[in-house]
Amino acid sequence: MTSQVSSPAEQADEAVLGELGEQRKPAGTKDVRRLDRVIIRFAGDSGDGMQLTGDRFTSETASFGNDLSTLPNFPAEIRAPAGTLPGVSSFQLHFADHDILTPGDAPNVLVAMNPAALKANITDIPRGAEIIVNTDEFTKRAMQKVGYTTNPLEDGSLDAYHVHPVPLTTLTVEALKDFNLTRKEAERSKNMFALGLLSWMYHRPTEGTEKFLNTKFAKKPDIAAANIAAFRAGWNFGETTEDFAVSYEVAPAATAFPPGLYRNISGNLALSYGLIAASRQADLPLYLGSYPITPASDILHELSRHKNFGVRTFQAEDEIAGIGAALGAAFGGSLAVTTTSGPGVALKSETIGLAVSLELPLLIIDIQRGGPSTGLPTKTEQADLLQAMYGRNGEAPVPVVAPRTPADCFDAAIEAARIALTYRTPVFLLSDGYLANGSEPWRIPEPDELPDLTVQFAQGPNHTLDDGTDVFWPYKRDPHTLARPWAIPGTPGLEHRIGGIEKQDGTGNISYDPANHDFMVRTRQAKIDGIDVPDVEVDDPHEARTLVLGWGSTYGPITAAVRRLRAAGESIAQAHLRHVNPFPRNLGTVLQRYDKVVIPEMNLGQLAMLIRAKYLVDAHSYNQVNGMPFKAEQLAAALKEAIDG
Predict the structure, then answer these.
(1) Which secondary structure element, helix H or strand E, spans residue 514, and what is its range?
(2) Which residues contact 190 (CB under 8 A, 6 or more apart)?
(3) What is the average pLDDT across 607-628?
(4) How far apart are CA 49 and CA 188, in angstroms?
């Protein structure tokens, strides 16, 4: 068989992709190259269906068995001006035949549906990468709208890339000419043509997408048939056109996962399932009192579908009403939840303080986004940590739990519920937009792997007065957890007063006594300080002198950066916090073992401030607040500088 010489762009592409080998097919058929990983970014106008396209490619990739990580990125406007840079929506997918941790630093393949998509993303694309461009949209007006004075497809500015000019719109309309559709209706299916083309390029399954389209458009069978036809046309175009001489295979990640049943899951969906699982394990009805807010609304949408599991959802008129209803449900004996983002937390703060005073279990789920105020609704940030810790009047301590990956949101929800139910306290769960909208494979746990969260409600008197009378004291505490009894309203003999004014220890009566207030404040703090949380685990195979400490969604980029450094011969230790309040009991000892502690955060150093204050450790911050997650290469460079400094 005659060997084929790759172009410089193809050779660079192979280096970027980390090609493992090459498999040739018989003459007359196209080459198939095996890769260990690929990063693809779909980009287009907000109305081009890029999120749907990326989601479908992800679903088929998950069913194929690859490990994967995704990064949806879209504007906050419902419909930004067509063809403009602010209106660009993108979806990045990293999939591999081995364990991966991030959506990838830079795409190997960019699908650009218009000039705005190309211009908004070209700075992220490495030399030698492939760019698939919808040439139909590169009109003079469209290019001028985003600042192109010449056509980038013709002026040589893209010579460093392997460009595939494809008239996606024209090909889609031609493929659908036999359908009774207007040209505008037919053009809407161009994202399915692009999906079919990419599915051919990377040997993705197709059955799931066709089934999805039939289901999605079940009431419009002509639209379903048209989308399927466009999808198949894209696949056939890849198979027959000479411009795509090579397709690629990324084998399933057979050794990356423990045995089990897996599915692809986003952070918000995992949180929803975790809340349902927690309510079942506690044998309590689940109540969500919420107000829609990006990026938390998906939890409300998902939970509203599961009434069969005893889930009740209430979409309130505002944030305050949502948490007020949830706290009332907690008083009535439900596993109560309210979901929001940073601006909503600000409105809920008084009721959170009331929950601290009433000592009732309540989950406050904050899907963090860029701030302050309305900020960046669809971008990610970790800047609500200090708000969760201290954003209430008075001494009002609240536990804080933070998931590290989209799939980990399931376990974090169960852990937050455990703390709330065991210690009778509101609990913050701090996710963020990166975790909420991103996705990865998740092993579905067996029921016997889940913890028992069963709650014992108060049943009768729990205190004997000096005269021998048996009474119920609503603030008589468990000596181990300091939790007060949970008495369901209407239980005979357990009537008690609630409210925001300070309670007398034991009786719960209103009290203005200074000594009692001091005692209650210290007791509430002691209850939080005494919460049983696991020790922080340290990954340190070579007794390093530098420790990188993270929390929440920085786990993936930090771990990827640590792997790069160790592969280059550097010695660095890593620890990651799920429990931010209270800190694990061994954290101080861990920190003292290292000469340097580096804390990367998507804020201006909030965890670092807490660490410095509590442990008197000169922790070094590495911060980013641009609305996007860290890149592994960027973190690796910063950590290398810390090691060498």
Answers:
(1) helix 514-529
(2) 48, 113, 134, 168, 169, 172, 230
(3) 97
(4) 8
Q: How far apart are the first and last CA of the chain?
A: 54
Residue 258 clears pLDDT 80, i.e. is over it: yes
- d(CA 540, CA 601) in angstroms, rounded, equals 21
**255 vs 88 pLDDT, higher one:** 88
C-alpha 392/C-alpha 376 separation (Å) is: 24
A 10 A CB-CB count for 192 gives 26
Beta-carbon-side half-sphere exposure of residue 424 (alpha carbons within 13 Å): 26
In this prediction, residue 122 carries a pLDDT of 97
Does 14 have pLDDT greater than 70?
no
pLDDT (average), residues 610-614: 98
**Residues 336 and 326: beta-carbon distance below 8 Å:** yes
| Inter-residue contact 403 to 409 (CB < 8 Å) | yes
Interaxial angle between packed helices 342-358 and 319-331, expressed in degrees from 0 to 180 and rounded to the nearest 10: 30
Strand 88-96 with 37-45, pairing: antiparallel
In 10 A of CB 267, how many CB atoms? 30
Q: What is the C-alpha separation between 160 and 127, in angstroms, rounded? A: 5
Q: Under 8 Å CB-to-CB from 161, ≥6 apart: which residues? A: 9, 125, 127, 128, 129, 130, 131
E strands, 515-572, are 538-539, 546-551
Cα–Cα distance, 144 to 134 (Å, whole number) = 16
Residue 15: what pLDDT?
37
Task: Quickly count: other Cβ atoms within 10 Å of residue 79's Cβ.
Answer: 10
Query: What b/e string do you get for 603-616 counting C-beta neighbours within 10 Å, with b at 16 or more?
Result: bebbbbbbbbeebe
The helix/strand/coil state of 387 is: helix
What tokens does 47 get?
Answer: 């109305």
Cβ–Cβ under 8 Å, residues 505 and 471: no
Pairing of strands 311-315, 286-290: parallel
Q: For 97, list phi and psi in degrees, rounded to 5.
A: -95, 10
Peptide bond just before 534 cis, omega within 30 deg: no
- pTM to 2 decimal places: 0.93
Within 8 A by CB and 6+ apart from 84, the residues are 116, 145, 146
DSSP single-letter state for residue 11: H
Mean pLDDT over residues 44-64, rounded? Answer: 95
Containing H/E element for 368? strand 362-368
Residues 6+ apart with CB under 8 A from 340: 290, 291, 293, 296, 319, 322, 348, 364, 365, 366, 367
- Distance (Å, whole) CA 556 – CA 278: 26
pLDDT at residue 21 above 60?
A: no
**2 burial level (CB within 10 Å; 0-12, 13-18, 19+):** exposed
Handedness of CA 608, 609, 614, 619 (dihedral sign): positive
Backbone φ and ψ for 419, nearest 5 degrees, come out as -65, -45
Could you give the CA distance from residue 340 to residue 364 in angstroms, rounded to a whole number? Answer: 8
Written in H, E and C, the secondary structure of 574-600 is EEEECEEECCCCCHHHHHHCCCEEEEE
Helix axis angle, 50-64 relative to 207-216, nearest 10°? Answer: 140
What's the pLDDT at 29?
66
Condensed to tens digits (0 to 9), the pLDDT of residues 376-431 reads 999 999 999 999 999 999 999 999 999 999 999 999 999 999 999 999 999 999 99
Q: What is the dihedral of CA 550, 560, 111, 195, to 10 degrees?
A: -100
